[in-house]
Amino acid sequence: MKGYQFLENDFFDLCKTREIGRIPQLLYIYLRGLYCRFQKPIFTWYDKKILKHLSISQSTLSRSRQYLQKQGMLKFKSGNGIVPTEYTMLGTILLPVVKKPIQCRQSSIYRYRQNDDTLLSIKEREKKRMGIFKGTTVMEKVLLKQKGIL
């Protein structure tokens, strides 16, 4: 299901044993979602968006980040103004396993379609795609005549 997180390994019980409060839990779940979205442990995100999405104040966000960093769940490097905050999600049991993303064939960076066989000519690509029909052998013709097809 796209857009949903599955909280494995009794997430809330583990948070309770580690004495993680509800606002740091909420922030961690939000950052887990971004971790899954970006498919890498180091990413940047704006504080304004977090404040808007979670409806918390800047001081609450700062306290929650400090607490999660103290617990060894993440590291962050706070951004100023238009510079976003850089988050590093540390590997804990509470962090989901990210599968390797599927590479898209249409790349917006290079502005051309990426082919695996870019050095092949058009005729070679046609042969590779369709295969070359070599005709029927004598043995195949005999079998077809026996079945009454030929």
How would you describe this protein?
With 150 residues, the chain is α+β, with helices and mostly antiparallel strands. Helix content is 43%, strand content 11%. The strands form 2 sheets. It has a 3-stranded antiparallel beta sheet. A hairpin with a 7-residue loop joins strand 2 (74-77) and strand 3 (85-89). Helix 2 (22-38) packs across helix 4. The radius of gyration is 28 Å and the shape is elongated. It starts with 10 loop residues before the first helix and ends with a helix.
Brief account:
The chain has six helices and five strands. The protein has helices at residues 11-17, 22-38, 47-54, 58-70, 122-130, 138-147; strands at 42-45, 74-77, 85-89, 106-107, 112-113.
Q: How do the strands and helices of this protein lay out in sequence?
A:
Blueprint: H1 11-17, H2 22-38, E1 42-45, H3 47-54, H4 58-70, E2 74-77, E3 85-89, E4 106-107, E5 112-113, H5 122-130, H6 138-147
Antiparallel strand pairs: 1-3, 2-3, 4-5
Helix pairs in contact: 2-4
